[in-house]
Each structure stands twice: as C-alpha cells, then as structure tokens.
C-alpha cells in the first residue's frame, strides 16, 4: 500500500524577495551595530510593491502554518521537546499588537500561545521579575508570542526610574543566562525589535486621538515616552548590544511599513522552523491493516 507524500506549500515565487535564511541574516543584529542607523522605511530583502508583499505573505502564511503543524505533530506523537518563543519589543505604536494578530491568524489556535506583558500586577510585582515570564513559556510543539517581555524589566524600569540602576543593570546578564537555558532546553528564542520613525509614530499616535476605533489604545505615557526618544534609542541600543547572542538573537525589523515587518517576521520564523528539519511523524500502526479495519467497520444499511 502506498502512502501519499505530504504536499509542501510553495514558498512565494515570482516575487523579488530574499530566501528566509537571507532575510534572517539581513536583519539579525550583531552587537556593535547601530540601532539608530536602521532605516524604518527600508524593506531589506524585499524589492517588490506592497501588493507583491501581500501575495508573498499569503503563500508564506501557508508555509508557516505547515511547519508549525509539523512541530505540533512531532511533539504530540514523538515527544519532541522543541518550541519557538517569539519576543516582540518596540516603541509605542510600532505595531507589536498587529504583528501578534498577524502571526496568530496564520496559525492553528491550538499551536500558538500569546502573552502580553503590561505593568506588573500586584501579584506579579510581589515576585521575582522572571516569575510571570516562566509561567507563560510555550509548551512543546507550540509557538509562544510575547507582546513585550522581560525586556521591559530593563527598559520600562530604566526609563521610568522604577528602580535604581543597580537593579536593572544586573538584568542583562540574568536575562542572557535565562535565555541560554531556554535555548539549551529546546526553546528557540527569536527576538524582534520593531523600529519606526518619529514621523510615523506621530501619525499613529495622532490617529489614536482622532479615531473613535483607536482612542482606546491611547496612553498618556506614550507621549511622554516619545518626548524621551533619544534616551529610549540609547536604552534599546544597550539591550541589543548586551543581549543579542547566539541562540537568542535580536532581529531589528523596519516597521514603518506594516506589511513589510509582518512579511519579514514570518520569514524569520519560517527560517527558524526549517532548521528543525521536521518530517511528518509516522504512526506506529500498520496502515494497510487499519484501512482494512476501516472498511470492515462500515455500518450496515438497515
Ligand atoms: P501596552 O503594550 O500598550 O499595553 O502597554 C503596556 C505598558 O506596560 C507599557 O507602558 C510598558 O512599558 C509597561 N510595562 C510592561 N512591563 C513592565 C514592567 N516590567 N515594569 C514596568 N512597566 C512595564
Ligand atoms: Mg500602549
């Protein structure tokens, strides 16, 4: 009896775009690179139009979904101990929420777990800063998506003066060790720093003030944080320099064009999953015998 081979959805062809591994190479941050020098308008690895981007995206979504399902299936059937953790950071209105929505909508709801990290609750604040993060790590076979993360325990704490420098400055090393442990355990950590221009941010924050469907997103602190643009740039640069490492790299993704940042992050995830080389798991049964049983089980017409 012949088992039909699984069909692999095609990566988008006929679109001027770089392969997933090349996109990852283009956007991966190497310590010493300049965060401020990354052009938020740019579309590295993609030279087509926005319309081309949409076509490429829909094909890539199918590829990502296929890879995610292989991961899920191998964890379920073979006990594979791997998962992916996508961490998304960026300034207010950089598109973190939209990116989460995009990634999630491309995947089976069973295979994805989302966590958003806001100002710590009283219970969270009563614990070690990584406590709330540990609790939201994705189970094997899943993709976890963090909308903000433990990096706020450096960034927000530093920028809002919530604790002395001694406290947040120690966290770079603590986080490196934490993420190294995740990597060694089988969790592939992918960190995305979205970058937008001040002009684009102004437009997006203005939208939140004048549009009925967006007002709920406005937060007074977004405007004061924006006024400290340069200090945030320094804080992001320090995070990137000190925590972009093998096994837990940062990718700085231009995000003025939302369609580009979504396409780029999808390709980065595809690259990550492709490296696991996942085949579809085989059942531990004899397919021919099971087919015979299936046929024999046909209910008799009365
Ligand atoms: P939003 O992402 O728009 O829901 O906003 C969440 C807010 O929570 C941001 O202003 C973050 O800076 C803040 N936040 C997240 N994590 C922390 C943290 N560990 N300590 C302080 N503020 C935080
Ligand atoms: Mg906000």
TrEMBL record:
The keyword Glycoprotein does not apply. The keyword Kinase applies. Residues 62-274 form the Polyphosphate kinase-2-related domain. Pfam families: PPK2 (PF03976). Keywords: Kinase, Transferase. GO terms for molecular function: kinase activity. PANTHER family: POLYPHOSPHATE:AMP PHOSPHOTRANSFERASE, POLYPHOSPHATE:AMP PHOSPHOTRANSFERASE-RELATED. This is Polyphosphate kinase 2 family protein. The lineage of its organism: Bacteria, Bacillati, Actinomycetota, Actinomycetes, Micrococcales.
């Amino acid at each position: 009896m012949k088992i039909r081979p699984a069909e692999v959805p095609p990566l988008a062809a006929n679109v001027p775009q770089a392969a997933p591994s090349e996109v990852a190479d283009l956007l991966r941050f190497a310590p010493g690179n300049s965060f401020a020098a990354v052009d938020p308008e740019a579309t590295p690895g993609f030279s087509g139009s926005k319309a081309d981007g949409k076509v490429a995206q829909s094909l890539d979504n199918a590829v990502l979904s296929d890879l995610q399902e292989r991961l899920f299936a191998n964890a379920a059937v073979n006990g594979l101990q791997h998962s992916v953790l996508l961490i998304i950071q960026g300034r207010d209105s950089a598109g973190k929420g939209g990116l989460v929505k995009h990634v999630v909508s491309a995947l089976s709801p069973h295979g994805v777990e989302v966590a958003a990290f806001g100002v710590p609750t009283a219970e969270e604040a009563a614990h070690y800063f990584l406590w709330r993060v540990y609790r939201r790590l994705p189970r094997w076979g899943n993709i976890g998506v963090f909308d903000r993360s433990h990096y706020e325990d450096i960034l927000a704490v530093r920028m809002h003066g919530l604790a002395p420098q001694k406290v947040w400055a120690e966290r770079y090393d603590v986080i490196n060790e934490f993420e190294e442990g995740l990597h060694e355990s089988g969790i592939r950590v992918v960190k995305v720093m979205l970058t937008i221009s001040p002009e684009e941010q102004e437009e997006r924050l203005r939208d939140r003030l004048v549009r009925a469907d967006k007002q709920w997103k406005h937060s007074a602190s977004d405007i004061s944080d924006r006024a400290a643009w340069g200090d945030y740039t320094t804080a992001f640069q320090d995070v990137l320099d000190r925590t972009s490492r093998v096994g837990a790299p940062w990718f700085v993704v231009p995000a003025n064009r939302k369609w580009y940042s979504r396409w780029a992050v999808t390709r980065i995830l595809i690259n990550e999953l492709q490296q696991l080389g996942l085949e579809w798991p085989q059942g531990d049964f004899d397919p021919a015998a099971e087919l015979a049983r299936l046929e024999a089980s046909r209910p008799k017409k009365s």
